[in-house]
């Protein structure tokens, strides 16, 4: 005895597969971005910390070499604002919205008042008026 399937069931199955596929792509992209950021962090700062410990133990590290490794770590901090927009669309949109050099010509500039109200969670609320309380 076979039960006939409704026509909506295959569509729901394909919709759930598409939903799962979309989220797995996002998770893969987030993992890739995190891997790149952490990899760059370790490549830039691990030599500095190893040299720092070596310097504390034996004192045999030249000052110039130590300075070069310190600046390598600083360069890593400089790379983060470059990496985030390359891999994260939301970060790119936010930067374009608030930085004048990255804004598209058709987008309006946000006002300082709207930014402060958005960040402070203050603004007109229906439950906050005295009439609604009494």
The helix-strand sequence is: HHHHH
The number of strands is 0
How many alpha or pi helices?
A: 5
Question: What structural class results from the helix and strand content?
Answer: mainly alpha
Q: Radius of gyration, rounded?
A: 26 Å
Helix content: over 70%
Distance between the termini: 66 Å
Point out poorly predicted stretches. 126-130
Largest sheet: none
Percent of residues in beta strands: under 5%
Mean pLDDT: 75
Envelope shape: elongated
SSE map:
Blueprint: H1 8-58, H2 63-87, H3 89-98, H4 112-120, H5 130-133
Helix pairs in contact: 1-2, 2-3
Protein name: 5HT6R protein
Subcellular location: Cell membrane
Biased composition (Polar residues): 114-123
What does the model show?
With 134 residues, this protein is mainly α. The chain has a domain at 17-98. Helix content is 74%, strand content 0%. The protein has five helices and no strands. Helix 2 packs across helix 3. The longest helix is centred in the N-terminal third of the chain and has 51 residues, at 8-58. The relative contact order is 0.06.
């Amino acid at each position: 005895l076979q039960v006939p399937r409704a026509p909506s069931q295959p569509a729901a199955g394909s919709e759930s597969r598409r939903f799962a596929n979309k989220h797995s792509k996002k998770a893969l992209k987030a993992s890739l971005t995190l891997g790149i950021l952490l990899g760059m962090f370790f490549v830039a700062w691990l030599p500095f910390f190893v040299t720092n410990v070596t310097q504390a133990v034996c004192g045999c590290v030249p000052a110039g070499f130590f300075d070069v490794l310190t600046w390598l770590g600083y360069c890593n901090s400089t790379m983060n604002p470059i990496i985030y927009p390359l891999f994260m669309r939301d970060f790119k949109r936010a930067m374009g919205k608030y930085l004048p050099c990255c804004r598209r010509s058709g987008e309006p500039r946000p006002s300082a008042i709207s930014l402060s109200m958005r960040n402070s969670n203050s603004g007109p609320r229906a439950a906050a008026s005295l009439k609604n309380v009494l």
